[in-house]
Amino acid sequence: MISIVLSADDSDARLQAHLPGEDDTLALGAALAAALQPGLHIWLQGNLGSGKTTLTRGLLRALGHTGKVKSPTYTLIEPYSVSRLDLYHFDFYRFNAPEEYLDAGLDEYFAGQGVCIVEWPDKALPYLDQPDIELRLDPEGDGRVANVAARSEAGRTCVIELANLLKQTPPPGAA
């Protein structure tokens, strides 16, 4: 089920989508690609195997990337120049201490107009700035549920656009 909820003061935007299968997660990523704007920072939350990299793969495919899309667990970052965007996919899972974020010199990526997608952002806190969008994937029944929340005005615009896109063309199997 796809729903969008705006608070009374219109400062908040949230979306929830039930994703029965991997194709649905890829489709959500593709819809998110259509709503992206340069400079957005997106945190992907969820346990191991929850679909964070799958969602990113769907997003990159929709932007025209035809190569492999792998989790940057060992490399920390996978950069992509796709379509109209520079996109940086981060994975901080292997950080043992937040200071490793500073030691790696990754903050320069977050200062520009590139889209930054971060898996395991909590491992870099308090050094990582708050995201524009927080997207959480959790198991639910035989699939997963995606909860998308705006954390900035730019994120709010993106989440509303994503909701509109999903209402027009829901992911396969979405009810």
Topology of this protein?
Layout: E1 3-6, E2 13-19, H1 22-35, E3 41-45, H2 52-62, E4 77-82, E5 85-91, H3 99-104, E6 115-119, E7 133-140, E8 143-150, H4 153-168
Parallel strand pairs: 3-6, 3-7, 5-6
Antiparallel strand pairs: 1-2, 2-8, 4-5, 7-8
Rg measurement, Å? 15 Å
CATH architecture classification: 3-Layer(aba) Sandwich
How is the largest sheet built, in terms of strand order? 1-2-8-7-3-6-5-4
Distance between the termini: 5 Å
Strand content: 25-35%
Low-confidence stretches: none
Q: What's the count of strands?
A: 8
CATH topology: Rossmann fold
Q: Helix coverage percent of residues? A: 25-40%
Which structural class do the helices and strands define?
alpha/beta
Whole-number tally of structural domains: 1
Biggest β-sheet strands, sense, barrel: 8 strands, mixed
What is the residue-averaged pLDDT? Answer: 86
CATH class: Alpha Beta
Compute the number of helices.
4
Full CATH superfamily name: P-loop containing nucleotide triphosphate hydrolases
Order of helices and strands: EEHEHEEHEEEH
Rough outline: globular
